[in-house]
Design goal:
Blueprint lengths: L11 H19 L3 H20 L6 H4 E2 L2 E2 L5 H28 L6 H23 L1 H7 L4 H9 L2 H16 L2 H18 L9 H30 L1
Antiparallel strand pairs: 1-2
Helix pairs in contact: 2-4, 2-10, 4-5, 5-8, 8-9, 9-10
Length: 230
């Protein structure tokens, strides 16, 4: 009875296959994007009461811009910069804790730097808007530069751009798919009219729902892959 030859440990093809399997396992263990998705989903849902009830008084004659209060610094204006900075602190803690536990580090620094930079840029934009409402009114328009600036400096835009970089760092196609779905939800919600004071709620729930479902799916996928590898 013929027997199949056992690959030698020095066989180049065997070494290549072993190395490839090890690389895939390391990449799988380094992925933890489900946590940022859940953190940002919580931040999106928590924004609802603050955006609605935290606007503060508005002097439309002196500080109103398209119905938005910009002559003061109410809680709603500062919620997102503060929430994003706290979110990145939590995300940093999560990845550092995983690295210490698994002995595998993820090159998460570029993602954190970009996210914090966008959050600070948003805070600067909020302060400038409050101090110079007339200047902002002159720049407000539908041109490509104005639309791009409003998108990048929006809460959804800053989250989406940072998640795109995280998908590249973790080389995660599922995360890229979730991020693209999130950005599509953001762009579609921006195109809807604003008939009521609660008009922001559907878009907030849609974007937060995409992040929540994406985070849960990625967490279950990561757990299933870990069980199959074990």
């Amino acid at each position: 009875m013929a027997t199949q030859p056992v690959p030698s440990s020095s066989d180049p093809r065997h070494l290549l296959a072993t190395t490839g399997a090890l690389v895939q396992r390391v990449r799988r263990e380094q992925r933890g994007a489900w946590f940022p998705l859940l953190v940002f989903a919580a931040a999106r849902f928590a924004a609802a009461p603050i955006v609605e009830y935290g606007q503060g008084p508005c002097d439309a004659a002196n500080g109103g811009l398209g119905g938005l209060c910009v002559n003061s610094l109410p809680p709603a204006m500062w919620y997102w910069p503060v929430a994003l900075l706290l979110a990145y602190v939590a995300i940093s803690w999560f990845y550092l804790r995983r690295s210490a536990k698994l002995g595998l580090g993820t090159r998460i620094q570029p993602y954190l730097v970009l996210g914090v930079a966008l959050a600070l840029l948003m805070a600067a934009d909020q302060a400038w808007t409050a101090a110079h409402p007339g200047f902002l009114a002159e720049l407000d328009g539908t041109g490509p530069i104005s639309v791009f600036a409003r998108t990048v400096l929006s809460p959804a835009g800053t989250i989406g751009l940072a998640l795109l970089l995280l998908a590249r760092i973790e080389r995660s196609w599922p995360l890229l798919a979730v991020t693209c779905g999130y950005l599509l939800a953001m762009l579609s919600s921006d195109s809807r009219p604003d008939p009521s004071p609660w008009s922001f709620l559907p878009s907030l729930l849609l974007e937060g729902g995409v992040l929540l479902v994406g985070g849960v799916v990625l967490a279950l996928l990561h757990r299933a892959q870990g069980r199959s590898a074990g």
